Amino acid sequence: MIRIILSDRAYVNDVHPIVKAFYPEKEIEMLDFFENQNRISKDSKDIDDTSETTVSRIRMSFDTGRIDIEITDNSGKCYSSYINTPDPVGEKSAYKNTMKRELYRMLSDISGKILPWGILTGIRPTKIVYEMLENGVDEENIYKVMEQEYLCYKEKISTSITIARREIEILRELDYINGYSLYVGIPFCPSTCLYCSFTSFSVERYAGMINSYLEALEKEIRYGSTCFTDKKLTTVYLGGGTPTTLSANQLDRLLGLIRSLYDFTYVREFCVEAGRPDSITREKLTVLKKWGVNRISINPQTMQQRTLDLIGRGHTVSQIYEAFDMARSVGHDNINMDIIIGLPGESPEDITDTLEKIGMLNPESLTVHTLAIKRAARLNTEKENYKGLRAENVTGMLKVSEEFAKKHDYFPYYLYRQKNMADNLENIGYARHGKEGLYNILIMEEKQTILALGAGATSKFVFHNENKIERVDNVKSLKDYISRIDEMIMRKKNFIS
Q1: How many other C-beta atoms can be found within 10 angstroms of the C-beta atom of residue 410?
Q2: CATH no. for residue 42?
Q3: Residue 227 phi, psi dihedral angles, 5° rounding
């Protein structure tokens, strides 16, 4: 347990992610000074019994012009520091970054760790680089800002610049300012994977709710078609969950409704997450082709059968091959495949083998995710059952995937990060030229309004002239979404009007 005591809880979301990045397996308790003083606790209760040097308590005081930090380790040794800061009101961002750098420096000295992304804990590190490039900042000064302000590794800065340049080139071809994208969420999966914390519901338990869900979703889809009659639809993305958990008839009905209600004249990408190989049939793939879907994902996550069994994927390696070959035979010529590095018990050698097998299939794009263990995932809630199954050398796995991508002519085109990622790394999308996932770029760089429909979906309204983004959420619960669909529609209607 690490106890963090702050004089101002306004900085919880700045402090917590940095501490968690250094100590991902530790539980963290956030307190303010008053809460801490009213606890009956002694220093000995804060001391961890592990032999490894770790942090047990962090105490931070925020004042105008100064921040004091006191860190106690598990042996009882105390480290103190203070730093003079810019004005917390007039230079809020600079104040926070100054604090983060000092906290980072202290934690790095104590732990002996260096984080490749420095103090960056948000999900969109390339967005900073993208905006600097758009504003005419040269590479030398981009490196300087990213190193000095955010403490990033040079190689991560280089990757960010490469991706941001590619994104700018691709988006230059799109009228994203006068357009919008459509996201439709299908929150059902054949089963729930060990690492998953997304809004998804096992079809084994929730099959009886699918038709009611689709009826509510169709109502929201009909409303959505009236929202932006003055904008051009750019991309359409069906995600989840696993949309191909639906039957062929259900998919046919859903895609047919979307095509009948929305103007596809300017749609550049119509993508469906086919996802789980055990949800794919020839009939479903034919339905996707019938309605003009021009990009799909078939996601093995790993080609190691023992890992598939462990994480509850519920399919075999053979089924991955079969689903991919089936998609090709139906005519799908733009297929993405996802893998996850850092899965329990895997090593760089396993990733090499997985990638060699994927290389034989020759998909048009490859997305490499680094395992992020969310609080609600079974891999976290049942972690005692998986203590001896840590992945080996996740950084080495990422290197293997980078070398594979380069060798097979896949180029990085988008990148994002999540909390609690193994080795504080990133997710990165690779694609052959012309096969990039446009929706992925638009949502990561937040350049276009995304109208999101379905349980757990979040619409993002981008106001370019005001440099502002507003969000409108749908409820996550299936039952609530179905019973409150009129309220979900009204939320958007009230915002847009």
Answers
A1: 22
A2: 3.30.160
A3: -75, -40
Q: Reduced to 3 DSSP states, what percent helix, strand and coil does the chain have, rounded to the nearest 5? A: 45, 20, 35
Residues 480 and 453 in one domain: yes
The total number of residues written for the chain in this structure: 497
Q: What is the pLDDT of residues 213-269, one digit of tens each?
A: 999 999 999 999 999 999 999 999 999 889 999 999 999 999 999 999 999 999 999
Q: What is the dihedral of CA 250, 251, 255, 258, to 10 degrees?
A: 50
| Ramachandran region, residue 45 (left: φ > 0; alpha: ψ -120 to 50; beta: rest) | alpha
Strand bridging mode 468-473 / 458-463: antiparallel
Which long-range contacts (C-beta less than 8 Å, at least 24 apart) are formed by 30-35?
30/4, 30/6, 31/3, 31/4, 31/5, 31/6, 32/5, 32/6, 32/7, 32/8, 33/5, 33/6, 33/7, 35/5
| 43-55 confidence digits (pLDDT tens) | 444 444 455 678 9
Bridge-based pairing state of the strands 66-73 and 78-84: antiparallel
- What domain count does the chain have? 3
Question: Widest CA span of the chain, in angstroms?
Answer: 68
Please report the pLDDT score of residue 121 as a whole number: 86
Residues 421 and 446 in one domain: yes
Residue 13: C-alpha distances to residues 17, 122, 289 (Å): 7, 10, 44
Say whether both 65 and 161 belong to one domain.
no
For the cut 80, the answer to whether the pLDDT of residue 419 exceeds it is: no
The residue range of the domain holding 45 is: 2-111
Say whether both 52 and 71 belong to one domain. Answer: yes
- Spatial contact of 363 and 335, defined as CB atoms under 8 Å apart: yes
